[in-house]
Amino acid sequence: AVFLLMAEHGLGYVPPASTGLVFGDVPIDHWAGDFIEQLAAEGITSGCAPSLYCPEGIVTRAEMAVFLSATFGLELNQ
In the chain, what is the straight-line distance between the N-terminal and C-terminal CA atoms, in Å? Predict the structure, then answer.
């Protein structure tokens, strides 16, 4: 989350404060909560399941390709 948003907006980017309400497994005090909620707000991710982000999950190459495509408006060849 942090990598994608800083790559998109610049190294000094600070997202809005998290609410802790977007994903049930990302509490308001999660170290990357602000960035995770902003990814959802920008439509870059909807999480791993309804109401879950799975912050400790492993991101596959295919998933990262989708995240990068959504972040930078790239087209994926299927």
Answer: 24
